[in-house]
Amino acid sequence: MWVIDLDGVSFDIAIRDLRKLIIDRMDAIGKWDADYIREMIQSYNTANPISDEEYEMLLIDLSLPNSFYKELKPIVYSPTTFMTEEFNQQLQFINELEKTKWPVLDELAKDRKGGLSLK
């Protein structure tokens, strides 16, 4: 079996850092929250203005199953160590978290298309 380590593949734009911050915060609060994310984006935009293209890239990056991949990666290297009830619970949490992500991403995409200013 071959696994491509997507965590090592990156694109050279600063918006990737914002994606990581957003995902970590949504994981910590246990659901995706559009208002919270908007505040994060607006704060980031104050220091580092986000172009329309970067915003679109952020939404695309957020749509990927980053949390799932982060948890799945260790299993490939040592399946018997990581296939535990605790891991199963973590996967269930990620699955439920992912369900709350899609409506938020749709809402954030409409914000930009609707002309919502980040300033």
- Mean pLDDT, rounded to whole units? 84
Largest sheet properties: none
Q: What form results from the Cα inertia axes?
A: globular
Q: Encode the helix/strand succession as letters.
A: HHHHHH
Distance between the termini: 47 Å
Approximate strand percentage: under 5%
Gyration radius, in Å: 16 Å
Structural class of the helices, strands and pairings? mainly alpha
Low-confidence stretches: none
How are the secondary structure elements laid out?
Blueprint: H1 15-29, H2 34-47, H3 52-63, H4 66-77, H5 79-82, H6 85-113
Helix pairs in contact: 1-3, 3-6
Question: What would you say this structure looks like, in words?
Answer:
By secondary structure, this protein is an all-alpha fold. Helices cover 72% and strands 0% of the residues. The protein is built from 6 helices and no strands. The chain has helices at residues 15-29, 34-47, 52-63, 66-77, 79-82, 85-113. α1 crosses α3 and α3 runs antiparallel to α6 (85-113). The longest helix is centred in the C-terminal third of the chain and has 29 residues, at 85-113. The chain is globular, with a radius of gyration of 16 Å. It starts with 14 loop residues before the first helix and ends in a 6-residue tail after the last helix.
Short structural description:
This protein is mostly helical. The protein is built from six helices and no strands.
Keywords:
119 residues, single chain, 6 helices, mainly alpha
